[in-house]
Write a structure and sequence with these properties.
By secondary structure, this protein is α/β, with parallel strands linked by helices. The protein has helices at residues 21-32, 92-116, 150-165, 186-196, 215-227, 246-256, 268-277, 281-288, 296-302, 310-318, and strands spanning 12-16, 36-41, 54-58, 77-80, 120-124, 171-175, 178-180, 212-214, 235-237. Helix 3 (150-165) links the parallel strand 5 (120-124) and strand 6.
Length: 319
């Protein structure tokens, strides 16, 4: 979907998490469409990192006591992209932060949105609300939630809080899978580093299927869901046009760097056993299992189409 078709020119949109991967690209997408963007930030922003056209508003830490009045002045829509990010082996402090930021912070913002008369609040959730793996069929937006870890459970609780606080015509939920793009961190960034170093990786025998979403494609979907009449009161899943396997991902990363992938075969069952012994079982499981989703409803009902092919998005991410 072209940026110009978003139809957000009359909106003043508050974006939380505006300094993060999703928020940064979304702000640029909305501004290109003519919207006014207010970026909620914890504290002062480095002038060199500021996005032209964004009005920054300091709100402090996000949680149940955050004061949103100044940030919400004149705002007609909210995209809540800020979150305490998922970590592979969360400590008790991480779990507490999940709740304070991701659940209590979301509920407090929804309550502030209701008081301020905000027309629409879009919550960037996670496909982890659906579960961790799809052995039989693609995840769908209407599946019964089955979150398996602390991050997924908190995202689910945040969704429930949003739905309980706002009327159906005022909320939208988008659940993306792994998001890649310039400035990405986490598992994807670690994988690109391993490939760049030329490490031989034992993934040649893996036959899985993973849905990813480029940050530009996700930003387009969020922008469309902010204004489309069918988006309200529903959950939407986001994904690129084509899914990839772990070996295909490694080869694509290598090709984008002008390298040849170094892959060798190790039985997946043996990989699981070895990873479990060294405390990497969860990380390897994500590379072996399938996790793919059905984003057809977003394409058919919202008129959204992932405009950036995986290869191009990956090249931009690695650049």
């Amino acid at each position: 979907m072209a940026v110009e078709s978003v139809g957000a020119s009359s909106q003043r949109v508050l974006v939380t998490g505006v300094t993060g991967l999703v928020g940064r690209h979304l702000a640029k997408t909305l501004i290109a469409a003519g919207a006014q963007v207010v970026g909620a930030v914890r504290g002062p922003v480095d002038p060199l990192k500021k996005i032209p056209g964004v009005q920054y508003c300091q709100v402090g830490d996000i949680g149940p006591a955050t004061h949103w009045d100044a940030a919400l002045h004149g705002v007609s829509a909210i995209v809540h992209a800020a979150a305490h990010a998922h970590v592979m082996a969360p400590r008790n402090s991480d779990r507490e932060a999940y709740r304070v930021v991701n659940v209590e912070g979301t509920q407090a913002l929804a309550e502030a949105a209701r008081r301020s008369g905000v027309a629409r609040m879009l919550f960037v959730s996670s496909i982890k609300v659906n579960g961790e793996a799809t052995p039989e069929r693609a995840f769908r937006a209407d599946d019964t939630p089955e979150p398996r870890d602390a991050f997924g459970r908190c995202k689910h609780e945040a969704e429930l809080a949003l739905r309980a606080t706002l009327p159906a015509e005022s909320w939208v939920i988008v659940r993306p899978p792994l998001v890649y793009g310039p400035g990405m961190r986490g598992n994807f960034a670690r994988m690109t580093e391993l490939v760049a170093r030329g490490w031989p990786l034992p993934f040649a025998a893996i036959r899985n299927r993973r849905t990813l979403v480029g940050v530009d494609n996700l930003a387009d979907l969020i922008a469309a869901a902010l204004v489309h009449s069918r988006a309200a009161g529903r959950v939407w899943l986001a994904g690129d046009r084509d899914d990839v396997s772990t070996p295909e991902l490694v080869r694509a990363i290598a090709a984008a760097r002008g390298m040849t992938a170094r892959l060798w075969s190790c039985p997946p069952a043996l990989l699981r056993q070895m990873a479990s012994v060294v405390g990497r079982g969860e990380e390897i499981r994500r590379l072996i299992d399938s996790l793919y989703l059905d984003s057809t409803p977003a394409r058919e009902e919202l008129g959204w189409a992932p405009r950036t092919p995986f290869a191009h998005g990956l090249q931009a991410a690695l650049a």
